[in-house]
Design goal:
Blueprint lengths: L2 E5 L3 H10 L4 E6 L2 H5 L7 E5 L7 H6 L4 E4 L3 H13 L4 E3 L11 H6 L3 E3 L8 H12 L1 E13 L14 H9 L2 E5 L2 E5 L6 E5 L3 E7 L6 H4 L4 E8 L3 H11 L7 E3 L2 E3 L1 H13 L7 E13 L2 E12 L8 H18 L7 E3 L1 H5 L2 H13 L4 E5 L1
Helix pairs in contact: 1-11, 11-13
């Protein structure tokens, strides 16, 4: 494998392109000229300015590359994966799309394509960890807490969008699915909020989000749940916005114009949520796995606390998400991932050598998961 195309040059897409350019020929594609300008200092990376949302554009762009990396917003993710499969190209995708990726299984098999989806941190790394332990033990419970936040808690939101802002809004409105006592439970987003302590930050608020995704189909585990982390107090004001209708996609007639409230909300919030140059963020992830291993009750806890990299000016969310993706890309390039069809991250974690490779790859880039065993 020689050439890789990265679709999307946002914070995470940039990190992915820069990391992969050390080993491969990389081209990055984006609609935003400013995003591409930020890659100019990396002379080995080629850039293409185009609108990937236009019909046929994804297939046209990807046809000449060996591997595709999808780093587009969630609302473009499913179509991007589908169009890449139609082009007969393998793809590793990090987007948080609503649709069921297994709807593309038959198409991927027919086109002899590997489509690795949710290849980020959460979902992503949490799935990989669970896939690994599920091979070694009878897992009874899986919990995943994850979030990216700014160090500076600034009124009114105490939050900055460290990935696609529209995908942040999805976390506030998409119903959350989890498994309780072997049954699928559906709750509204922001439900069942709780306070958990995370060193070295302190107390953070966690609530239900729809982060289990493929695990609901691929894992027969009686209890599984995923929650998003924010600073305490977030749930209350986000619920006020949601219940007032600010996140609604149903058009309203305003001064003779049809306006979707969520589009207006996005326009207002995104500038406020933008991570300014030099502002530092952190990523927190905790994965708790309980079950029986060789007849003995076991509990494994994986804790990640990662910070903004001042040397590379790379956000923590870009590092933790992006380097998980690039680790998978290296494994794929080396022929270590042979699954054809839709390949969620848990399938990759099943192989011990792949699991250990990813952990080492992340450590080499300063992303360290600390493991405790009880």
């Amino acid at each position: 494998m020689k050439s890789i195309v990265v679709l999307g040059a946002g914070l995470v897409g940039k990190a992915i392109a820069v990391d992969l350019s050390k080993s491969f020929e990389v081209t990055t594609v984006d609609i935003n000229h400013t995003n591409l300008e930020k890659l100019e200092e990396f002379k080995k990376i080629k850039t293409v300015l185009t609108d990937l949302s236009e019909d046929g554009e994804v297939q046209r762009i990807v046809k000449d590359f060996d591997l595709v990396i999808g780093c587009l917003p969630g609302y473009m993710g499913y179509k991007t994966v589908r169009d890449t499969i139609l082009a007969g190209k393998d793809i590793i995708d990090i987007s948080f799309f609503r649709e069921d990726p297994f709807e593309l299984e038959e198409l991927a098999q027919k086109n002899n394509v590997t489509a690795i989806i949710d290849a980020g941190v959460a979902p992503g790394m949490g799935n990989i960890i669970l896939g690994y332990h599920n091979e070694l033990m009878e897992v009874k419970s899986y919990k995943c807490y994850g979030g990216g936040l700014p160090f500076k808690r600034e009124w009114p939101y105490e939050y900055k969008a460290v990935f696609s802002p529209m995908d942040v809004l999805e976390e506030y409105i998409r119903p959350a699915r989890y498994i309780l006592n072997g049954e699928l439970v559906v709750r509204e987003a922001l439900s069942e909020a709780e306070i958990q302590h995370f060193e070295p930050i302190g107390s953070l608020q966690a609530w239900n989000t729809d982060g289990l995704r493929t695990l609901i189909k691929t894992m027969k585990i009686p209890n599984m749940i995923e929650k998003t982390l924010r600073y305490p107090g977030t749930v209350n004001y986000i619920k006020v916005l949601r219940e007032t209708g600010f996140f609604s996609s149903d058009p309203l007639l305003v001064n003779g114009e049809q306006v979707r409230p969520i589009d207006l909300t996005a326009k207002l919030l995104f500038p406020v949520w933008e991570l300014k140059k030099g502002e530092e963020d952190f990523t927190m992830l905790r994965v708790i796995i309980k079950g029986k291993e060789k007849g003995v009750e076991k509990k494994y806890t994986y804790d990640l606390f990662d910070k903004y990299d001042k040397v590379t000016n790379m956000t923590s969310m870009a590092r933790t998400t992006g380097y998980t993706c690039t680790a998978i890309a290296h494994l794929f390039a080396e022929g270590k991932i042979n699954h054809k069809g839709i390949c969620p991250p848990e399938y990759i974690g099943v192989d011990k050598s792949n699991f250990e490779y990813i952990l080492k790859y992340l450590i080499d880039r300063g992303v360290q998961y600390n493991v405790t065993e009880e």
